[in-house]
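User: quick one
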Amino acid sequence: MLKIENLTKSYTSGGRALTVLQHVSFELRAGDTLSIIGSSGSGKTTLLGLSAGLDRATSGSVWLNGIRLDDLSEDQRAAVRNEHVGFIFQNFQLLPTLTALENVLVPLELRGISNGTATAQALLERVGLGGRGHHYPTQLSGGEQQRVSLARAFANRPKILFADEPTGNLDAETSATVEELLFELNREAGTTLVLVTHDPELANKTQRVIRLKGGQLVADSAA
Amino acid sequence: MTNFLWLWRMAWRDSRRSRSRLLLFSAAIVLGIAALVGINGFGANLARSIDEQARELLGADLVLSSSQPIDSTLRPTLDRLGRTRSREVSFASLVQFPKGQGVRLAQVRAITGGFPFYGTWRTEPESAVAQFRQATGGQRVALVDDALLAQFNAQPGDSIRVGKLTFLIAGRVRETPGQSGFSAAVAPTVFIPGDVLAGTGLLQRGSRVQYRTYYLFAPGTDVAKTIKPLEKRLDAANISSDTIAERKQQTGRSFADLTRFLNLVAFVALLLGCVGVASAVSLYVREKIASVAVLRCLGASGSQALLIYLLQVAALGLAGALLGAALGTAVQLLLPRVFAEFLPVAVDIQVSWGAVAQGVLTGVLVAVLFALLPLLSIRRVSPLRTLRASFEEDTTAPDPLRYLVYGLIFVFITGFAYLQTREVKLALGFAAGLLVALGGLAGVAAGLRWLVRRFFPTSWSYVWRQGLANLYRPNNQTLLLIISIGLGVFLMATLYITQGLLLSRVQVASGENQPNLVLFDIQPAQRVDVAQLLTQRRLPVLQQVPIVTMRLTELNGQPTSELKKDSTSGRSRGSLTREYRVTYRDTLISSEQLAEGKLPYLAADGTPHISIETGFFERLKLKLGDTLTFNVQGAPLLTIVSGTRTVDWTRVQTNFGVVFPNGVLEPAPQFYVLLTRVPDNTVLGSVQRELVQRFPNVSAIDLGLILQTLDDILSKISFVIRFMAFFSIATGLVVLISSVVVSRYQRVQESVLLRTLGASRRQMLRITLVEYALLGLLAAATGLVMAVLAGWALAFWVFDIGFTASPLPLLLLAALTTVLTIVIGLFNSRDVLTRPPLAVLRGEG
Ligand SMILES: Nc1ncnc2c1ncn2[C@@H]1O[C@H](COP(=O)(O)OP(=O)(O)O)[C@@H](O)[C@H]1O
Ligand SMILES: [Mg+2]
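Assistant: Done. Structure below.
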């Protein structure tokens, strides 16, 4: 499902090259769940971004569902994302000008599905927000926003889900609900999951955990 | 496009929560288009009215006029022209209302036949026209302009004395075809029947009389073609002809300056609209970047994201343009009312759909084109932004589309300037000027950033350092603010300078020692007595000028009758055929300056060396040393052109195209003009009364009245100019607001941080103050300098006048802009300053 091979990413700033990810490789099969852990600045987000095709690596390759992302243009990668990928962000990233329901509809509509309202409404109900569809993000609490974001992530039935510290901005109690929902939905849909987190407890809920340090893969529970 | 409908739906959904932002954007369009539609609609109405009413302007199909009675050999031929004719003899004379002992100068028009053939002669009572036309056989009835009756409180039924005869006033004239309210006020007319003219005793030698014949042709006759074979004979007899087609052109031309200026206003208002659109949209785009990144993440392509916002902008542009067109139409309906009195035609008010369509189209085009510039960057927003808040796109790669948009904008501006002015050179000049201004402003912005960085005053206080550093730090707003504020100031100041230039051109000096009464047609024998009449009343004789009339017969030995046929020479026909009114003196007067060569002088061999006014000199394509032969009332006189003068025609002086030296023309038949200044209307009345009794051939022109009427017109013109400029200023304000608002979103994060770190409200205020004061001041100053250059260029190339500009209002404009920038800047950061930092950080999701 996801194959990372020898991935390296470096930035040049002020004439000096800074390598933030070095020779990282791993592979996931369909339905696998993975946590990426590591201290702040270790390159977790960078790795996630590269895996999801949001950015280009300096060297190395990424295969997503058998598609090699390295040579695709930004628009081609966008199409791949819409087809196969779901996202959950630390700061929710709902479109502030759209209602909850409309936010969930976006991935469907982007695929050209114009009668997705029922699907979207069902998903909202699934995350316990059936009655809040017409509310704008600012009218929802953080936990509620993240639940809308979960509904949106699963709307296009993605094969793989990327989540960057999904509970990082939430209090413990809300976090628990969101985590529970995330794993439930994931199980139901059989989605491959890649999760970045600080929280060892959350990490332990996935089948596999890898640890980054200074941009290098230093531990892999599957190894 | 996979899913156009979806793009529309997204555009619609997204706009729901951004309407107030988009309002600024629409406001710029609304105002720009309102000015455009208002002005173009008015122009179209004026042109159409002139077209429709040209027949009424003339009152006939053809008018032949001459300053002498028509030659008896030519008369039979001319009398066979057309279906019907009407004859008129007109001259200026003092008229008297015996009832109230009132005297004043009026235009007397003695009419035989059915004038006017077109248009209505509006009188009260209406039957007066019929009564006037039937008054043959010596009946003494007159029609009198309302202005005259009103001045002396006279009524139809009263009597009026013209020369030696007394007339019954049959009616009050409200409107005469071909005469504007303005000319009726300056020289109000008394119409009398032609067959009693001789009885008035006013037709004496030396007085200036016009003989006109009005012709009515069968409908559909090509008048120009009919009189073509007669042209030579008419020229020889010094008879000028006037057809409807010619009158149309003339009338259009006399409003050329006004139209050009209004076109400039429209152009400026629209450009300000463009600047407004560009800066409002770049503000909008910055706000939307986060949303775009999410859309990209979810799989929207770059062009889809761009289209969502482009559709929004286009729809709003359309709405703004429609609203602007409606507002402009209202303005357009208003303009003719303001100008009504001195326009020669009644501009009938009609919605000009052409102007409306052009305005709406232009509005949408401006919205899309100028919004595209900032919108293009949307395609390059990276989805990585969803993961990293402070992510910066790699913007180093050139975007070919951007250059395409730049090209389109240049084509659009040039094309628009061409459509407004219909002159290719002018259009290119406008566009180039704008480009220079833009380049200058960008240069200044870059220079400022470089200077501040290079010579950073490390020893200055914290507030200054922070404020200055804001000018060059990443994401700084220096370029955007300097360009948008600077362009706004530039355009408005240019408009203001031009307005001043045009007003100064028509300004009539009415200062203390300026003459306000002109006495014409004084015979040499009367000269001493008339001067005495004035000095007895302690009135000054400010100028006493002899005038000799003559005609040009040869230029460098070639007869003018031949030169006239050569249409390739570029010589103005009018200058060749006209009657020259010439004076003689060896010096210049205060309104004149020597341009080239010498003052007029009499050579030792007795040949007069004459001085020509520069405009004349050009129209006749003369060189110094050319010889001109004049026919001075029968006698040929050879002269040499040996100098040119510039003449300030706006000064109340007796100004002449040709000045002879002393010692040649003294024996020639001549009359005198005398200028004086009377303190008030009572003295004026008594002078006029005595003049009409003792010297009935002498006419007097009350300049005071003319000055007042001119003043009236000028204040109306400047009202319109200010009114139209208001639109530009309002648009400028929108530009200012949107460009400053842009910066708010940049500064919030930083300011909050500073606040969190403990900077006081006062410090924050002062940092903002330093930053905006510098930006505002620099932008305004640069814009001003550019405007002075542009004003000079416009004066020189477009309006052909000397450049002047009053610095005070311009400095005021600059100061006001700076203050407004600061105020709006501070107002914008009030959020950051008054709310607790955490609330602000949470504010935008
Ligand atoms: N655009 C960039 N330019 C330079 N360095 C960057 C850029 N983006 C991230 N980095 C650096 O890469 C390193 C890894 O960042 P990140 O992947 O966000 O870490 P994590 O998510 O584990 O906290 C950090 O040291 C960060 O400063
Ligand atoms: Mg991270």
